[in-house]
Amino acid sequence: MEKLTKEGLEKLRQQGAATEKNYIKVGFSSCGIAAGAQEVYDVLCEEARKHNADVEIKKCGCVGICSAEPLVEVRVKNMPRVFYGKVDKDTAIKIMEKHVCGKMLVNDRIYDLKVN
Amino acid sequence: MGKTVFIKDTTIGGKDKTRDIYGILLGILRERGLENEVQVVRVVDIGVYGQGVAMRVLPENFLYSHVEETDIAGIVEQSLLAGKPLAAKLVAEDSKQLRIVLRNCGVIDPEKIEEYIARDGYQALAKVLGDAPEKVIQEMKASGLRGRGGAGFPTGLKWEFTRKSPGDQKYIICNGDEGDPGAYMDRSVLEGDPHSVIEGMIIGGYAIGASKGYFYIRAEYPLAIERIEKAIKQCHESGLLGKNILGSSFNFDVEIRLGAGAFVCGEETALIASIEGKRGYPSPRPPFPSVKGLWGKPTCINNVETLANIPVILFKGGAWFAGIGTASSKGTKVFAVTGKVKNSGLVEVPMGTTIEDIVYGIGGGAMPGKSVKAIQTGGPSGGVIPKEYFRTKVDYESLQQMGSIMGSGGMIVMDEDDCMADIAKFYLGFCVDESCGKCAPCRIGGTQMLRLLKKVTEGEGTPKDLDQLEQISHAMQKASLCGLGQTAANPVLSTLHYYRAEYDAHVNNKKCPACKCAKLVRFLILSEKCVKCGMCFKACPVNAISGNRESGYLIDQTKCIRCGQCFEVCKPRAINRS
Fold first, then answer.
1. Are B303 and B147 in contact (CB under 8 A)?
2. Kind and range of the H or E element at B493?
3. φ and ψ at B318, to 5 degrees?
4. N or C: which end of chain A has fewer CB within 10 A?
């Protein structure tokens, strides 16, 4: 990476400004990893490939709802942004099939908490 | 965007009506031919608790509580068709959380500097590098930020002292030796947003005139260390650390030092000794580290959370930050809400939020079927705050008045099954283990107090023991060398103050009111209530329960370890605990 100047920093900031892309974020702090975030992440990646889904799968830190880890945040265009909690392999598959591909939210898994 | 409805029955105890209401709503939608326009979803948590069936309509974000079957048609008519709120059932929802320190935690990928920069990262640094360091300190003083490690010393003042101390070399240290039981916000910030701490440190270094910084992180946080290492490497590559930062003439670099996990090394003088490679012993102050710190040079030590606040303060201005919080405590505080609470996790609220709002509003209250008794803040240096005081607004002073402290932000929720003498024994035991042994009041006083507390919880205490506990506590507070010993007695004093009756019951009646102290409690199966289901038999970890489904069950008192598992699983409440 090039040494940054003030101008370079500003350019990087604008480049990274919010896009309207679909994303899935998996919490990858100690709490999430201990609860099984790696498996969820792997399953999501595999399912995304299988369905050729238009979604970016990312890692992030802990959002604060540690009791509900592994926590997965899903944002799909024209749908509310939601957090799925206590996600296991089956839920991860459902998230990809129903939510991302089928545009239907998954029942009994959403933690509707205002955090950020 | 089509409409979405979230449903959750938030009633505590009783039958969960979520599915019934869900079915009724779906039926009405089908009747009106709306089933393809509106998505109805059952959720696990809707952000309100104990308010009947709750319903949220998106994208308008109308939140309704106490929804009855008869209200559903109205909600469909008003909210789903006309897009208006149904005023009678509306809950005015104000999110009590305000995220400054945790602004990026769970939002960005902590291992990618680009994502931090995209969220205004390093903008504050770019801004201050054009200003005089004195101006930066002035801005910090205007913000009113106080140290988040626990003591609450004004950060701007600390920086000023260090800047004004004469010395050719100065240091800034990030204290990441988080050791309070139940507190983990520093770990979460280091793991979730390492660059914000580094940026805070670079700015701090610039303000006090330091060219070198140290991260002191405990070795028990391997992931935090890994992420900080990665972040430092990215900063070196992009010229945010090293020589001529962002094209200016300012040079600054940081290094990581690992703590071996001694609690006392969170105390600043012991921390400095540990970085120097010496044994982690505290030393008397003054001289304060701002005058004579690391290797005898002026040193500023800031907590992780304090440093994470700095970029935002300098980006948005001190006056903005000073507008949040109470008269004496500005900004927000991150609490790690743990223990017997529904939603354990990290909570960031403005100073001045009531304990009630944190424990019930955000934490969701006690576990099903239990009730909250008290909270404990400040870890082993803090005290308990009984439920009766939950309307108190949290800030440094109000907690101190109640005999507790802010501490690093651990908030442990305790319910009716927690015995206060036992809690005091736990925290004191922690301090006795972690005492470095250098000064006598802490070394001997702690051990003696622990001995007395053991006596009390085993039913062998006398009223005189309680007086003696108080006496030793005061002696330790006055005579100990460092913060560990001075505050180690706080849990004992505060539980004695608020729950004297509980101690008296242990001493006079040889009873533990919370039925927690193993030597003072007995479990018996009441044969007239017992339905012979065998749940207790299965739950007992030491096979102290014998019998079968025909003849019933019996507890062998000699084998029983009084863990209470049988009591918890017994549905007909046929186990007597006394």
1. yes
2. helix B490-498
3. -60, -35
4. N
Name residues 78-107 of chain A within 8 A of B (Cβ).
78-80, 85-86, 104-107
Helices (H), B32-148: 72-75, 113-118, 123-128, 133-143
What is the tens place of the pLDDT at every residue in B138-186? Answer: 999 999 999 998 888 999 999 999 999 999 999 999 999 998 888 999 9
A19 touches chain B (CB under 8 A): no
Chain A residue numbers with beta carbons less than 8 Å from the beta carbon of B193 are 61
If phi over 0 gives left and psi between -120 and 50 gives alpha, with beta otherwise, what is residue B480? Answer: beta
Superfamily (CATH H level) for B113-321: NADH-ubiquinone oxidoreductase 51kDa subunit (3.40.50.11540)
Domains of chain A, with CATH numbers?
A: 19-101 (3.40.30.10)
Q: Which residues pair with B554 in a beta bridge?
A: B546
The count of other CB atoms within 10 Å of the CB of residue B436 is: 21
CA distances from B31 to A92, B26, B66, B75, B284 (A): 33, 9, 24, 15, 78
In this structure, CATH architecture of domain B420-508 = Up-down Bundle (1.20)
Per the CB < 8 A criterion, the answer to whether B397 and B503 are in contact is no
From B43, B123, B221, residue closest to A13, measured CB to CB: B123
Element (H, E) at B235: helix B222-237
Q: What is the pLDDT of residues A24-66, one digit of tens each?
A: 999 999 999 999 999 999 999 999 999 998 899 999 999 988 8
Reading the block at residue B565, the tokens are 């598992």
Interaxial angle between packed helices B304-316 and B133-143, expressed in degrees from 0 to 180 and rounded to the nearest 10 = 100
Q: pTM of the predicted model, to two decimals?
A: 0.91
User: Chain B: residue nearest A86 by CA?
Assistant: B44
Please give the structure tokens belonging to residue A16: 């990274």
Q: What percentage of residues in chain B have a pLDDT greater than 70?
A: 100
**Would B420-508 and B522-577 be classified into the same CATH topology?**
no
Q: In the sheet where A72-75 sits, what is the strand order?
A: A56-60, A23-27, A72-75, A82-84, A110-111, B38-45, B3-9, B53-58, B62-64
Asked whether residue B336 carries a pLDDT value surpassing 80, the answer given is yes
Secondary structure (3-state) at A23: strand
